[in-house]
Amino acid sequence: MISPASTPSVSVSQxxxxxxxxxxxxxxxxxxxxxxxxxxxxxxQSLFEQLKLAIEGRFGPSTEKYRxxxxxxxxxxxxxxxxxxxxxxxxxxxDAPADPHQPAKRRTRGGRVAxxxxxxxxxxxxxxxxxxxxxxxxxxxxxxxxxxxxxxxHVVPARIEVIRHVRIKYGxxxxxxxxxxxxxxxxxxxxxxxxxxxxxYVATAKYQDALPLYRQSQIFARHGIExxxxxxxRWMVQVGERLMPLVEALRQHLLQxxxxxxxxxxxxxxxxxxxxASSTSYMWLQRGGPPGQQVVLxxxxxxxxGRVPVRLLGNYAGRLVTDGYEGYAEVVRKNGITHAGxxxxxxxxxxEAQKVQPKGKTGKADWALNQIRKLYAxxxxxxxxxxxxxxxxxxxxxxxxxxxxxxxxxxxxxxxLPKSALGRALHYLEGxxxxxxxxxxxxxxxxxxxxxENAIRPFVVGRKNWLFSHTPSGAxxxxxxxxxxxxxxxxxxxxxxxxxxVFETLPTLGEDDDLGTLLPWCWKETLPV
Length: 529
Description:
This protein has helices at about 10-60, 85-95, 195-205, 215-220, 230-255, 305-315, 330-335, 345-355, 365-380, 385-415, 420-430, 435, 450-465, 470-490, 495-505, 525; strands at about 170, 180, 260-270, 280-290, 295-300, 320, 340. By secondary structure, the protein is an alpha/beta fold.
């Protein structure tokens, strides 16, 4: 039997310490559970938003048009919208007739579009028979009193023909020496039977109209001529190689521009040394130059690393506008370039956040979109202004909007989950803020990188049809031809006619001839009279 004296004694203070320790452990576990629940809820919300965006991307409209009426912005941070009455008054003034007593003309919607007057016309005369040119009442011969003219659009299908170059030989009748023959005409591809018009047709069909070469081969077969796809491909590679000197002339012109836009997109090249066929390569785009002398250049590279912009920009030290990709940081730092961001990309993030909001609700994404809309409204007013005047207008109207947006951003960053769609939009805006606000201090810097995105879009559309390039040389040839076509389009020229001119003229130039005569803005001046 154990005596009471041998039982260990526990003091009240020790019990209290044990209870406190257990309570602290329980509190810690509760906090941990709350943290885990918050993480699970954030993960669930993020997955839900991703699912909703995936469904929206698959089945929803592709437009990013702002969908919420300004009157619906019933949230605390909303401010007064852009002065709608002022804009309305400007519209009314623009539409008002010169004579105040004359009613304003209403613009008709729909209806048939008039056929362009510059199209050639072929007249078909419809006459009454001879026995119908007399009056039914008294038999008097009818006289012409007018005409009724209607027009219909007629298409002449493509016709394939063969041009025979006949070179007459001359020789002396008294001896076998002194045979003379007219020189052969210079050809872009000397060992090919493809004319400049055919090469321009194939290049325009593929690189502007996104018609793959195998389909073109089928079309030629329907017209009675077999041109295998690999022959068409070989022609395009050779054409791209011949165009490289002209592309370099365009590059030198581009690097003199005060501002350059850049973008890049993916490309698959199947047969590339030391790389699997499924590897991702890139097509890089640069665009710049004054109106009427725009240059659009495509360049192929297997990498997306920062060394590629360093190679493409050389010693350029002007202004560079890009999206948020950090691969441009090296050339910006090395050359001292003024690097500006793209508000269209920032806006796109908030459009995604708006799409995952509860239906019929407005929130922070709507306020941000409204504020960005106001920035673009200022740019619309400043579009025709000189850089100094544009900067003055931005100081007056855009800078206060940016100040409001910054204060709202600082407040919202602490209120939104970072991994949510809205959180990603806010953190993108925060990370790009310095680049996005550079336009305030320079009237030459635009609000976005849309000129580059618009120029690269035809390549992206074409890629959906032809899917990949077989070799790096094919990708480089495609880049050269895309460069000429998009540069021609940027300067308001017909790509087919411009390519035909280049393909006809380039072989006739010597090594010392100036390639500047082939630049698109010189084209009309260099055409033969």
